[in-house]
Amino acid sequence: MAAFTAHTSAATTSHHHSPAGTAAILLQSRRRVYSPSRVSCSSAAADKSKTVVIGLAADSGCGKSTFVRRLAGVLGGGGGAASPARGNGNFPGSNTLVVGDAATVVCLDDYHSLDRAGRKARGLTALDPRANDFDLMYEQVRALKEGRAVDKPVYNHVTGRLDPPERVAPPKILVIEGLHPMYDERVRDLLDFSIYLDISDEVKFAWKIQRDMAERGHSLESIKASIDARKPDFEAYVDPQKQYADAVIEVLPTQLIPDEEEGKVLRVRLIMKEGVRHFAPVYLFDEGSTITWIPCGRKLSCSYPGIKFAYGFGAYYGHEVSVLEMDGQFDKLDELIYVETHLSNMSSRFYGEVTQQMLTHAGFPGSSNGTGLFQTILGLKIRDLYEQIVAERAAAVTADAINV
Amino acid sequence: MAAFTAHTSAATTSHHHSPAGTAAILLQSRRRVYSPSRVSCSSAAADKSKTVVIGLAADSGCGKSTFVRRLAGVLGGGGGAASPARGNGNFPGSNTLVVGDAATVVCLDDYHSLDRAGRKARGLTALDPRANDFDLMYEQVRALKEGRAVDKPVYNHVTGRLDPPERVAPPKILVIEGLHPMYDERVRDLLDFSIYLDISDEVKFAWKIQRDMAERGHSLESIKASIDARKPDFEAYVDPQKQYADAVIEVLPTQLIPDEEEGKVLRVRLIMKEGVRHFAPVYLFDEGSTITWIPCGRKLSCSYPGIKFAYGFGAYYGHEVSVLEMDGQFDKLDELIYVETHLSNMSSRFYGEVTQQMLTHAGFPGSSNGTGLFQTILGLKIRDLYEQIVAERAAAVTADAINV
Fold first, then answer.
1. Which of A49, A135, A141, B261 is least enclosed, having the fewest CB within 10 Å?
2. What is residue A144's predicted lDDT score, i.e. its pLDDT?
3. What does the angle CA A103 – CA A104 – CA A107 come to, to the nearest 5 degrees?
4. How far does Cα B170 stand from its chain's mean position?
5. Between A and B, how many residue pairs show a Cβ–Cβ distance under 8 A?
6. For position B283, what pLDDT does the model report?
7. Nearest CA to A107 among A123, A125, A87, A121?
8. Which residue among A287, A312, A342 sits closest to B286, beta carbon to beta carbon?
9. CA terminus-to-terminus distance, chain A
10. How many CA atoms, within 13 angstroms, populate the side-chain half-sphere of residue A145?
11. Which Pfam family is one of this chain's hits (chains A, B) (predicted)?
12. Interface touch A289/B300, C-beta < 8 Å
């Protein structure tokens, strides 16, 4: 394994990052509540995790950016922060999204160690770990988590090359999104919560057709070839990360309409690991039981094919999980609020918050189905997780102050 | 149709009852709250229904007597009243059960107009309307409902003949149970609530084998022959009554075990008509939706094959109904109380009342499955219906007194 030395990209725009010690890793915004000398052993551990780190993994074109925009909506508290505009004004080519003072979303493409030409020369895809610098990723995520700013490389998606690095300050919540947030064990261990967006082949294909054929004029053959070319590396390096995820959003074709293959009506499953600190899985009616629920009926009318929920539990890669599933789509506001009312452990701050979030961002893809619903719920869960960690630290500080 | 004249059996033990006017229909326990002269038109209507009348229909050997014992347990308030001993001490051969001062259960076999020999002579089964005196049934149920005692015939199940009649005073709740409580339109119109126990052929056959072969030494062939012989009349005269029932308990083979044919594990459905006065159908989690629920899981462990509930709605003989279904059986107390906790509109007076009732009568057939559960629930529903009617009358009397 690579050495645990600190890497930065402060002095270089190349894909190679030399170890530079702590000089370029700026210390910034250290705790103000109490001085380091008063930190006891127990609270020192909590203190180290100043920034809460969230990993969001998925293949490209699988909804990471929509998820990030929904998360920004929840954390930013308003519609403005959910804009897809990049937050670092000084770096027009930046892939980083700054959500007010609440969160910073770093795109892991910035840790490509090989640029487009380099990958081509070596015959590697961007999914191959050899095209990515996990040492640097680890060092910089760790630095941010410990409260130190970093000079993060910037991968330019237009040129396919690395631009000059940008300064990233430690945020309250750091989201690292991309192909490999849980690939490297060291990075994985830094994550307070991890999410994997798992789009089934059928849906992925339908989405690619929609985007690349309809919007970009690609041929069906070229789309198929592109998917097939990515598949071996995807299955070797990206897909296995879902076993580490605390929550997986699985997107499948609907079961409500026989032979529906357009990927328009979706069956979406939210797989939630049990026993994760600060994360209480959402449930339907009776926690720990097995339920199906068609809310459409006497009280709620739905258009064809309706909405069907399922809730249950099981094992996922050897972990105990709860699973909430939504098949079908909302076509009216009252369906959405009705469903929200009957879900528990939502971590919402007020009645109808999920519905409000979904309405605010009604134009985002998936707003009428389980992808939008579950992304929004995970947004609330991340906010809740952050608040629990902060509260825990505050309690530890108080206890420490009493014990001095 | 037969004339609407009053019949009694006061002076005869034969199967023929002559019209005898009002002489033998004793006036008894008339209202004491206010005098007849102060009864207004509106409250006179309510006043007429002094006795609440419940119809309970089923084939013989289908659990009517167990149901009655469970109902007695609910209405009598204790275990003693649920004893199967007949209540009319003066008539040792009586088929009538008196539950304290709360209810009287009349067996409609007492209205057989042909005794066993008479049926044999005319080639009729007891299921044939021609073997039953619906004129007398109607007159006596009406008399009881209006507050007048009757001298009801008594059919002796041992001799197959009619014994001397017995005096029946108007109870708070009159339950008429037997083959034909909803057959005659006039009798049907007197019912405040009606129940049909619908045992599927497979289960009926399994039960008959268990009882008649194991306990009475009958042969399999004779059991089959007996069922086949009853079937035409059953289908012509008994089964069609279920279309009029406010609640049907349907007993089917389990779907949890493939090819289970012993009738030991049952799938039981409680079909509840919508829009019935004083009767709010029970529901699971979300009224008016469609749900399946396997309570066995993380919180509740069950032995094989577990328990599965279903709740939904639909049409039953053209009526809108809600349906609650239980497949499987309870084998532990905590399963029962867990299930009770998650059902709504149960009409119980205190937390756990259904469980308490089922435990008190744990020795009754069906105590571990949906038949016992739904019989108990309908017992609570009947008590609730009675109390609502009484409260409504009291309110009408008060309103009347104010308006005088």
1. B261
2. 97
3. 145
4. 18
5. 69
6. 98
7. A87
8. A342
9. 41
10. 23
11. PRK
12. yes
Mean pLDDT of B364-392: 95
The answer to whether the CB of B91 falls within 8 A of the CB of B85 is no
Give the per-residue pLDDT at A79: 43
Q: What Å distances lie between residue A228 and A218, A234, B230, CA to CA?
A: 15, 10, 68
B295 contacts in chain A (CB < 8 Å): 286, 289
Band the pLDDT of B65: cuts 50, 70, 90.
confident
**How buried is A363 (Cβ within 10 angstroms: 0-12 exposed, 13-18 middle, 19+ buried)?**
exposed
Average pLDDT value over all residues in chain B: 84
CA distance B381 to chain A (A): 22
* Short-list A292, A306, A1, A327, CA closest to A134: A1
B298 vs A292: CB contact, 8 Å cut-off? Answer: no
Helix (H, G, I), strand (E, B) or coil at A72: helix
User: Which of A286, A289, A295 lies at the smallest CB-CB distance from B289?
Assistant: A295
Burial-class residue B152 by CB neighbours within 10 Å (0-12, 13-18, 19+). Answer: buried
Instruction: Please give the pLDDT value at position B92.
Output: 67
Nearest CA in chain B to A298: B288
The type of residue at A151 is D
Q: Which residues of chain A have pLDDT under 50?
A: 1-48, 78-90
Residue among B33, B7, B30, B31 nearest B20 (CA): B7
Question: Euclidean distance between the first and final Cα of chain B, in Å?
Answer: 41
CB count within 10 Å of CB B163 equals 18
Predicted confidence at residue A92, as pLDDT, reads 66
**Measuring CA to CA, which residue among B127, B238, B138, B244 is closest to residue B187?**
B138
Is B290 in Cβ contact with A342 (below 8 Å)? no
Name, in order, each residue with C-beta under 8 angstroms of B53's C-beta and a sequence gap of 6 or more. B141, B144, B145, B173, B174, B175, B176, B190, B191, B192
Nearest to B72 by CA among B395, B378, B392, B397: B378
Q: Give the pLDDT confidence score for residue B212 in this predicted structure.
A: 78
- Residue B15 or residue B373, greater confidence: B373
β-strands A319-328, A307-316: how paired?
Answer: antiparallel
**Cβ separation A295–B313 shorter than 8 A:** no
% residues pLDDT > 70 (chain A): 84
